[in-house]
């Protein structure tokens, strides 16, 4: 079982729709959760992070966390063609002073006109 | 403010050779992490350096090594290259180590091993 699992996609949604990206993780000791966006040929950039159960909203983006189900999701409202990218879920478990991010393989999102 | 700079951007090596990649973090950032990205495996953690000390290490063989200098610049080295080492190597810096989770990535060094 992979530590962080995502559906590779592509997830295709029409412009203006809600895109729902999902991620599950295996380590119950995971403490914080991140969504990175990576455009083709570019490096990843952080768009959202969440630490506590529930929802966290930032503009058109909402991150949802359910630690009991070991599930984190990203909702993108009013999807735009510029949102077409690969979305990487990352999970952090801190051990002492050391920590690392474990990434999923990403979900490719295509927003169609 | 300059971003994370990685050099070289592209390089081609043959099996058995060794390679050194360089990363200059954002000014003031003391943590540098290295990741390998391949289409099948995604982003895999190699190691993290903070104030010249390796603070965390991923599950890569000893052929992969790194170091960090007093100015926070970092290098990673891969010896005895194998075909499977072909990948995009990404460096990321952070102001407080990877504890915050906000990593700022460079554009990467794309290594091709023939």
Structure report:
The complex is a heterodimer of chains A (113) and B (114). Chain A is mostly beta strands. Helices cover 0% and strands 58% of the residues of chain A. Chain A starts with a strand and ends with a strand. The model of chain A has no long low-confidence stretch (mean pLDDT 92). In chain B, the strands form 2 sheets. In chain B, strands 2, 4, 5, 6, 9, 10 and 11 form a 7-stranded mixed sheet that branches. Chain B has a 4-stranded antiparallel sheet with strand order 1-3-8-7, with no helix packed on it. The termini of chain B are far apart. The A-B interface holds A 32, 34, 42-46, 49, 88, 90, 92, 94, 97-106 and B 33, 35, 40-45, 48, 55-56, 58, 90, 97-99, 101-103, 105-108.
In short:
The complex is a heterodimer of chains A (113) and B (114). With 113 residues, chain A is mainly β.
Entry keywords:
heterodimer, A: 113 residues, mainly beta, 11 strands, globular, B: 114 residues, seven-stranded mixed sheet, four-stranded antiparallel sheet, 0% helix, 56% strand
Layout of helices and strands:
The complex is a heterodimer of chains A (113) and B (114).
Chain A lengths: L3 E2 L5 E4 L4 E7 L6 E7 L6 E6 L3 E5 L2 E6 L4 E6 L8 E11 L2 E6 L3 E6 L1
Parallel strand pairs in A: 2-11
Antiparallel strand pairs in A: 1-3, 3-8, 4-5, 4-9, 6-7, 7-8, 9-10, 9-11
Chain B lengths: L4 E3 L2 E4 L5 E6 L6 E8 L3 E9 L2 E5 L6 E5 L5 E5 L8 E12 L5 E2 L3 E5 L1
Parallel strand pairs in B: 2-11
Antiparallel strand pairs in B: 1-3, 3-8, 4-5, 4-9, 5-6, 7-8, 9-10, 9-11
Largest interface: A-B, 22 and 23 residues
Major β-sheet annotation of chain A:
6 strands, mixed
The count of helical stretches of chain B stands at 0
End-to-end Cα distance of chain A: 36 Å
Strand coverage percent of chain B: over 45%
* Low-pLDDT regions of chain A: none
Radius of gyration of chain B (Å): 13 Å
Separate helix tally of chain A:
0
Average of per-residue pLDDT values of chain A: 92
Shape of chain B: globular
Strand content of chain A: over 45%
């Amino acid at each position: 079982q992979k530590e962080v699992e995502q559906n590779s996609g592509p997830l295709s949604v029409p412009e203006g729709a809600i895109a729902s990206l999902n991620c599950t993780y295996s380590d119950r000791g995971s403490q914080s959760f991140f969504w990175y966006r990576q455009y083709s040929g570019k490096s990843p950039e952080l768009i959202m992070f969440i630490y506590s159960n529930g929802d966290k909203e930032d503009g058109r983006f909402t991150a949802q966390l359910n630690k009991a189900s070991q599930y984190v999701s990203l909702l993108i409202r009013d999807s735009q063609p510029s949102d077409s990218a690969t979305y990487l879920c990352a999970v952090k478990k801190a051990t002492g002073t050391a920590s690392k991010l474990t990434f999923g393989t990403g979900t490719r999102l295509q927003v169609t006109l | 403010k300059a971003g994370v700079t990685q050099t070289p951007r592209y390089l081609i090596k043959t099996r058995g050779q060794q390679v050194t990649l360089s990363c200059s973090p954002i000014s003031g950032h003391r943590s540098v992490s290295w990741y390998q990205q391949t289409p099948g495996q995604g982003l895999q953690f190699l190691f993290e350096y903070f104030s010249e000390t390796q603070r965390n290490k991923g599950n890569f063989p000893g052929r992969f090594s790194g170091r960090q200098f007093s100015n926070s610049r970092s290098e990673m080295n891969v010896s005895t290259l194998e075909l499977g080492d072909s990948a995009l190597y990404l460096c990321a810096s952070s102001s407080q180590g990877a504890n915050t989770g906000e990593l700022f990535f460079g554009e990467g060094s794309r290594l091709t091993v023939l």
